[in-house]
Amino acid sequence: MVSIVARIKVKEGEGASFEKVAKELQAKVSANEPGCEYYALHKTDDPTVYVFIERYKDQAAIEAHRKSDHFRSLGKEMGQFMAGPPSVEVLQEA
């Protein structure tokens, strides 16, 4: 199993717009990616910081996610609300 933690800072006042697109992406991942076991957006105490927690069966499932049309299009749409690139940590299950 491979997990990913992606910390995203959004522009001030853009949280609701970011969440709307992120939740659409979350739904499409859940419906279309059998190799993804968990994909959820989380809020932090800071209203401008969100965290995606993701869990995949293997590296091939991550690659399929990254190449999917929904990730590419909705990821680009989310980018307009972000205050810089996400911080991404990849974790291998021990």
Describe the overall structure.
- The chain has helices at residues 15-32, 59-67, 69-79, and strands at 2-9, 36-43, 49-56, 87-92.
- The model has no long low-confidence stretch (mean pLDDT 96).
- It has a single domain (2-92), classed as Alpha-Beta Plaits (2-Layer Sandwich), CATH 3.30.70.
- The N and C termini lie close together (9 Å).
- The chain is α+β, with helices and mostly antiparallel strands and 94 residues long.
Keywords summarizing the entry:
4 strands; 94 residues; 40% helix; globular
Count of β-strands:
4
- Strand order within the widest beta sheet: 2-3-1-4
Give the class-level CATH name: Alpha Beta
User: Mean pLDDT, rounded to whole units?
Assistant: 96
Q: Can you tell me the overall shape?
A: globular
Number of domains: 1
Reported CATH architecture = 2-Layer Sandwich
Class computed from helices, strands and strand pairing: alpha+beta
- Poorly predicted runs are none
> In this structure, how is the largest beta sheet organized?
4 strands, antiparallel
